[in-house]
Amino acid sequence: MTGAKRKKKSMLWSKMHTPHCEDFKQWCRRRLPILEWAPQYNLRENLVPDTMSGIMLAVQQVTQGLAFAILSSVHPVFGLYGSLFPAIIYAIFGMGRHVATGTFALTSLISANAVERLVPLSSQNLTTQSNTSIVGLSDFEMQRIGVAAAVSFLGGVIQVAMFVLQLGSATFLLTEPVISAMTTGAATHVVTSQVKYLLGMKMPYISGPLGFFYIYAYVFENIKSVRLEALLLSLLSIVVLVLVKELNEQFKRKIKVVLPVDLVLIIAASFACYCTNMEITYGLEVVGHIPKGIPPPRAPPMNVLSAVITEAFGVALVGYVASLALAQGSAKKYKYSVDDNQEFLAHGLSNVIPSFFFCIPSAAAMGRTAGLYSTGAKTQVACLISCVLVLIVIYAIGPLLYWLPMCVLASIIVVGLKGMLIQFRDLKKYWNVDKIDWGIWVSTYVFTICFAANVGLLFGVVCTIAIVIGRFPRAKTLSIKNMKEMEFKVKTETDGETLQQVKIISINNPLVFLNAKKFHADLMNIIQKENANNQLLDDISKCEQNTLLNSLSNGNCNEEASQPCPSEKCFLILDCSGVTFFDYSGVSMLVEVYMDCKNRSVEISLAHCTASLIKAMKYCGNPDSENPVSFESVSAALSNICSNKNLSKLSDHSEV
Length: 656
Hints:
Layout: H1 2-31, H2 34-37, H3 43-71, H4 77-82, H5 85-93, E1 101-103, H6 105-118, H7 139-164, H8 176-193, H9 195-199, H10 211-221, H11 228-250, H12 261-276, H13 278-281, H14 309-334, H15 340-352, E2 362-364, H16 366-374, H17 381-397, H18 406-416, H19 418-421, H20 426-433, H21 435-450, H22 453-471, E3 478-480, H23 483-487, H24 496-500, E4 502-507, H25 516-552, H26 559-562, E5 570-575, H27 584-599, E6 602-607, H28 611-621, E7 630-631, H29 634-655
Helix pairs in contact: 3-6, 3-16, 3-17, 3-18, 5-15, 5-17, 6-7, 6-14, 7-14, 7-15, 8-21, 8-22, 11-18, 14-15, 14-22, 20-21, 21-22, 25-27, 27-28
Transmembrane segments: 66-93, 145-165, 203-220, 226-245, 257-284, 304-327, 348-367, 379-397, 402-424, 444-469
Protein name: Anion exchange transporter
Membrane topology: Multi-pass membrane protein
């Protein structure tokens, strides 16, 4: 007995734990997408294009990392770290095959607000200038990267929390006009932030509401301080970049290798600056010292988390929205799917884990994603290859970037934002399709440049919700089906008189508090219009009948014949297949409609009702417990009406 019992227990134990093991494997594959695509990676077909794409992406990662670190008000070397660690994390957890995560202009701009507020430039003289820190930088620079890393950490925690709460399903609120306007406005902010480098001007940090306009006001007030050498070098760099990139785009099918113009420009500008000593001779600002190697990890300062909550939310929302739009565009183009909620986890971890390695907030960038498209990347292997090259730059080539002029770096950033800036062309599309979407785009853009990207995004979402709430109650809730289309479905033999008295109405929208009253009004209008038409037909038929009777009785009016006949009961079938969801107000209104129609001698039948709708109607007050109200289909409801009509006729004959 003991052996049998042990055998049963072992069988039960295996049954209980085998499904859990399988569930765990499925969970790992779902949460670690690299386990899905890595075993199926085709070396022959994908390695060469991924390698070429990885080389080009590494150039973009290095240049953008340096520039966006300066945009984030931290030392340029931290931008190199931000181009390495987030890309590795996203390659493991992310689902976008052509999404290149790393430093991002919008998140850098947001984190700069926290850095400048908590560690302003004026406090540089108050801190010790010793280079005894773990990366050989001053304590002032370490304090600044500490704040930026705290923003990245808290922003990532917020994104992971949104993943746990399954808020990825709420991304339907982020419409295309809102995302387009927000990213275009944020790109305009980034271009504005680079103006001081393009012109070679010394400018204090300006932010806050209307800071966009204050920057240009400062530029025009101090126009005499513009360095002509920096302006000419910026213009030359922009012309070369735009021209070569346009040629690469036009002839990419004919040439196998795309010219890495960013890399060529960096090498040429750095070499020219070194040979001519532009830093001293012309006063051009250069990148400066880049330390070698990667420091050991260290937790971001937790004592500043409460002070950077606003920036952390901005980083979490703006970074996720911009990255998700690129991931969805990539999935749509290459015919695969992206889990919105999984992207929350991927980007959250891409911010949390790298924050321990002195990284600024990260997200996907349109320029890098477009570069992966143009170079023919196949998988995230391209991003991993770029990480290897970035690592080489950090350990070997970094110090050689000392002589890179800041105006050249700013030119590379401005040209890289071309994809976002040309979204102004979408205005024509929105104007022709929907004037309201055009208005949302313009207003979101204005709010973004006047305040910030997160404020513009919030305004766009609220504006979209408000317009939907305003338009939804006025939308058409009902449509009348043609009776002739339904006649062939009814196999019961009926007379034409019965068919004419049946009205089939389809409910087009969900029944909720927004449109419940509109549904009631629309239905009552249809019934009243139908009653008016029937009354007119009855009056005509009665007039003809009275005329015939008068002629037969030689002008003597038959009083009984002239009496109005009782109006025949009308039948109404509501097709509820369009009621995809409902609330208490909607169901209550449906029950109220039933009672109103019953008082008007209109018999209502419901077709295609879900079980939940029938159950809800019982709780709100069962319309009729004796006679069936809901049917599986319109045909079944018609058959029921016709059979009842035939039964009533038989009963009339039997009474006679």
